[in-house]
Design brief:
By secondary structure, the chain is mainly beta. It is about 10% helix and about 60% strand. Strands 1-2-3-4-5-6-7-8-9-10-11-12-13-14 form a 14-stranded antiparallel β-barrel. The two termini are about 40 Å apart. The model has no long low-confidence stretch (mean pLDDT about 85).
Length: about 300
């Protein structure tokens, strides 16, 4: 799948949705209602993995919107010790039964780590029920050193470069079971290709698996907190939410298989959305995650959003 073709197709669909006439009554909220806000959120675990992201969303007319964000993530030494900055952007458009979004993110830690993701989602909505199709593309690379035998019974560290790229497709959905209860889930399948290059032509090309620091720098380490940096061959999520008044409580379970036989990642999380004042929403959360490479970790999250 060509990234430029994906962007062109989704952009054209957004324009058509934005220009399409709506037959909404005067008392019906516009399709992009709720997309004027500013928010900041962060999460961290007990292994020194952290992430913080600020987001601004603004409506365009009555059917479209744009978003931009900036942040930073940090990985503990067990996951490569990198500290990339994060830039995000997105655009969307909605009718009263369909919604399309296109988003992109870029993470960079100098020249030693870069990751770019582009994705789009097309949703069909009716009475609180949602069915959606997702498409993604990733291109990332990481540089570091690998230990190469020097022929004298020891080893020498030589520069190396690892890359990963590929496309993914997934589906997601929400079922409004009752007035207060909804259940939701998602599954995705990614097709990634990874390669390595070393400055020593005599060294074998498969040393990525022998160098945990370089492998985790490329594949996203083992942290649930920085899950967006993990290359997963397939993933799944299931959750349920209960809302009463100004409070909604939800529980989620996620699982995924890390690329290149990197083992599995799993997490369970309990979180709440609380409307604390007009326009203000606070969302705390706690959870427990595990990975075959990184072991277990507890994590917490907190975000605040103001809409007007």
């Amino acid at each position: 799948m060509d990234t430029h073709l994906l962007l062109a197709q989704t952009a054209a669909t957004i324009v058509l949705l934005a220009l399409a006439p709506t037959a909404a009554r005067a008392d019906t909220p516009p399709p992009n209602d709720g997309h004027r806000y500013v928010g900041v959120g962060g999460q961290a675990d007990n292994q020194h993995d952290q992430q913080v992201l600020s987001t601004l969303s603004l409506p365009l007319g009555q059917q479209a919107w744009v978003q931009a964000g900036v942040g930073e993530s940090r990985s503990g030494q067990a996951a490569g010790g990198r500290k990339p900055g994060i830039l995000t952007g997105g655009v969307g458009a909605a009718g009263h039964a369909m919604q399309l979004t296109v988003n992109a993110s870029h993470r960079a830690d100098g020249s030693k780590y870069r990751q770019t993701d582009v994705g789009s989602s097309l949703d069909w909505r009716h009475d609180g029920n949602v069915v959606g199709l997702d498409m993604t593309h990733r291109n990332s690379h990481a540089s570091g050193t690998v230990a190469v035998a020097n022929g004298q019974g020891g080893s020498t560290n030589v520069p190396a470069l690892a890359r990963i790229s590929g496309n993914g497709v997934g589906v997601h959905g929400t079922l409004q079971a009752t007035e207060h209860v909804s259940v939701y889930g998602a599954v995705a399948r990614n097709h990634y290709k990874s390669t390595t290059q070393q400055s020593d032509p005599a060294a074998p090309g498969g040393l990525l698996g022998l160098n945990p620091v370089l492998a985790r720098a490329l594949l996203g380490g083992t942290s649930v907190v920085n899950r967006d940096e993990v290359a997963l061959d397939h993933s799944a999520m299931a959750g349920a939410s209960y809302r009463w008044g100004k409070v909604a409580v939800s529980g989620e379970y996620t699982t995924g298989q890390v690329h290149d036989s990197g083992g599995a990642m799993r997490s369970v999380e309990l979180k709440a959305d609380v409307d604390v004042a007009p326009g203000w929403r606070v969302a705390p959360g706690v959870g427990r995650g595990s990975s075959d490479l990184g072991g277990h970790a507890s994590f917490a999250s907190l975000s605040a959003t103001y809409g007007w």
